[in-house]
Design goal:
Distance between the termini: 13 Å
Structural class: alpha/beta
Amino acid sequence: MRLLLAENDPVLGATIKQNLSHRAYIVDWAMNGTEAWIYLENQRVSYTLVILSWTLPRVSGLELCQWMRHQHQTLP
């Protein structure tokens, strides 16, 4: 399974990514909302789950979630 992690705290993000990777997940990590948006718009990558921090810089996690729902994405 491929996951998108959007977390701007470098320690927390690294810890989450490491733990998920050790459980055989493929994790793409974005450190701001713009980078996460680019990952989500990439049509060649299909995510099973998106983990969003609400306090992302540039574009908030809430804005990303709203955009995903507006695009009819049903990702959990």
